[in-house]
Design a protein that fits this description.
Strand order of the largest sheet: 3-2-1-4-5-6-7-8
Distance between the termini: 67 Å
Shape: elongated
Radius of gyration: 23 Å
Number of strands: 8
Largest sheet: 8 strands, mixed
Number of helices: 13
Structural class: alpha/beta
Strand content: 5-15%
Length: about 300
């Protein structure tokens, strides 16, 4: 089937390639037209902008949006204004599920259908496929199912519920990811500081083969350690996409205890401080009552 892919960053670029390889026709555009031209060389249909991309579709028109969060709202509203009843907008970015429900209602007033597709797979998705958690009306999802089945590996796609459900499930997925990553980080730091000269790359390798803690994340860690055993080329500054925060807020709103995900989010905040003022407070208090402070040179 034919669709327009709006936004050709790391995810949108590779998703377009996978769709092309699956026999679909993709009209591709981005603010950086050079990447759209590059994809045209791989078989995509080049479009100058959103309006041009939509003009090159036939009803029912499908527009997949993969743009940064700060411009998602504007792009979706612009697309909706150019579409008609029965057309579909898919938001495959990391949008807040509450905003997705609101957007579905807004564009639904003119008969445009909505799908929110929580998308996981990162830069490996082109090769391995993308896990897709899809929310929206059944008829819209059924129309676009050939796209989802091409993008996902066997068994890696599901229609999880109504509008907003796809982004809700992806939000929780990312919250769990935070916790898993933090557990690996803490465990490997403990081994790094042990009295033994442990080969962390070798340990990551064997844990990935038969161990109960094996996972794709561990495979990625093994790959990172293979090229830089002490991770000297990487700064310990960890950003968050926002979904970890939303997961913690959902846990609070729903009265669900989630200490691991919450603390893993807080650990990311700590990674961004060159020197924690809170740690200075603790040091100052210890010095006041016990004379334990370590003075700067």
């Amino acid at each position: 089937m034919r669709l327009a892919m709006i936004g050709l960053g790391k995810m949108g670029f590779n998703m377009t390639q996978r769709l092309l390889q699956g026999g679909h026709e993709v009209v591709a555009t981005d603010r950086n037209l050079d990447v759209a031209r590059e994809l045209a060389g791989k078989g995509a249909v080049f479009a100058e902008n959103l309006a041009d991309a939509i003009a090159k579709l036939q009803p029912p028109r499908v527009v997949w949006v993969m743009v940064p969060s700060q411009v998602t709202e504007a792009v979706i509203l612009d697309a909706a204004a150019r579409l008609s009843k029965g057309d579909v907008i898919i938001d495959g970015g990391n949008s807040n599920w509450k905003e997705s429900r609101a957007r579905a209602e807004t564009i639904g007033q003119k008969g445009v259908q909505w799908i929110d597709a929580g998308t996981s797979g990162g830069v490996w998705g082109l090769k391995n496929g993308y896990c897709l958690m899809v929310g929206g009306a059944p008829e819209a999802v059924k129309l676009c199912e050939p796209l989802f089945k091409t993008l996902a590996p066997e068994g890696g796609y599901a229609h999880v519920g109504a509008a907003g459900a796809g982004h809700y499930v992806k939000m929780v997925h990312n919250g769990i990811e935070y916790g898993l990553m933090q557990a690996y980080a803490e465990g490997f730091e403990i081994m790094k500081t042990s009295p033994f000269r442990l080969d962390l790359h070798k340990i990551a390798s064997i844990w990935g083969r038969g161990s109960v803690v094996r996972s794709w994340l561990l495979e990625l860690l093994e790959s990172a350690l293979a090229g830089d055993k002490d991770l000297e080329a990487i700064r310990g500054f960890v950003e968050d996409s926002g979904e970890g925060r939303w997961t913690v807020q959902a846990a609070i709103d729903q009265d669900v205890p989630a200490p691991i995900i919450t603390l893993s989010l807080q650990a990311r905040f700590r990674s961004r401080q060159e020197e924690s003022f809170g740690a200075k407070i603790l040091a100052a208090l210890r010095n006041q009552f016990g004379g334990h402070a370590v003075k700067k040179a």
